Amino acid sequence: MAKVVVITSGKGGVGKTTTSAAFAAGLALRGHKTVVIDFDVGLRNLDLVMGCERRVVFDFINVINGDANLNQALIKDKRNDNLFIFPTSQTRDKDALKRDGVERVLEELKQQFDYIVCDSPAGIEHGAITALYFADSAIIVTNPEVSSVRDSDRIIGILASRSRRAERSEPPVELNLLLTRYDPMRVAKGEMLTVEDVMEILSIPLLGVIPESESVLRASNTGTPVSFDEDSPAGRAYLDAVARFMGEQREMRFVKPERRSFFRVLFGKA
Amino acid sequence: MRLFNILFPPRPSSAAIAKERLKIVLSHERASRTAPDFLPRLQKELIDVVGRYVEIRDDMIRVNLGKSGDTSLLEINIEIEGAKPKLSPPRGLAGAT
To answer: How far apart are CA A179 and CA A194, in angstroms?
Structure first.
């Protein structure tokens, strides 16, 4: 049975699109047929982060409106056969996301895919609510910072009350915390909330901690999901998170300050 | 070192301050998120009634809906310590001891 996973946060700029790309790529690397959908109508960016911006012909809104069929709009990733990108419209506004249309498209995707990863827009308006409405599972992307934690708490409340599972009194949407842009050095100095602080405040299970890393910007510069970069700490942290999502036990890495070796200091390797 | 700490008490880290502030603001926001919408009206009417007898400010009454085991609990806290009694009960209620 296909699973719908929403990547959400409330606050903007915390790493939802980076996470959507990296998480979907991680699922695909494990052999699961995965599609990642951009729900940020009017502010399309998943295509750039995935490196397929020049291959977009039809989009999510075209398919909802019946102007194109699903297979015309889906873009197959060139690096992994299990991975597909479903871009959104750059010109329409968010109201074009009609709930019954989205439902129809998701049902069709469920016939073809194991995982449907939904990249939510920021905020708690129509687009964000539509992205989370059909979710079976949610990944709450949070930075160790007060406004992000507060907005995550708000989104958790909305998932519990306004998702389809909540409305139908079905088992609730599975919640997972993903802490991103974590800087163990600053945590050690008492300048940043610790993983434990954020877990205690939000009280949802921790899926992973992604360290602040130069490789994230490098990945988006080149249009590569960061989880394809197995040499980078962020890439490995995302692959760990995907493994935990699949039920594997993995120790949390990159949460303690790392001693920079002489070699690394000398050559400035991240 | 101990003397140093007494003379110059260490300041709490900014992360510790962030955590405390978040805990407080979120406990308020979570409570108001689940509260039934009659609570503000109930609170206002209580202020009107109590205000006929003692001087009271809006923030001296707190109405909460909580849970104790299986039973829901409507908790009303009225702070009157230091509140001045009104000199005479309102007209129409005089003599109704």
So the answer is: 10
For A63, the enclosing helix (H) or strand (E) is helix A60-64
pLDDT at A268: 59
- A157 in contact with chain B, both atoms CB, cutoff 8 A: yes
- Which DSSP string do the residues of A160-183 spell out, in sequence order? HHHSHHHHTTPSPPEEEEEEEEE-
* Chain B touched by A197 (CB under 8 Å): yes
In A179-259, which residue ranges form alpha helices assigned H by DSSP?
A: 184-188, 195-202, 214-222, 233-245
Contact B22 A150 (CB under 8 A): yes
CB-nearest to A191 from B14, B30, B33 is B14
Per residue in A137-183, pLDDT (tens digit) is 999 999 999 999 999 999 999 999 999 999 999 999 999 999 999 99
The amino acid at residue B41 is: R
Chain B closest-CA separation from residue A7 CA (Å): 22
Cα of A75 vs its chain's centroid, Å: 18
pTM metric for this prediction: 0.82
The Cα A115–Cα A129 span in angstroms is 20
pLDDT number for residue B87: 65
C-alpha to C-alpha distance for A166 and A168, rounded to whole angstroms: 5
Which chain B residues contact residue A197 at CB under 8 A? 15, 18-19
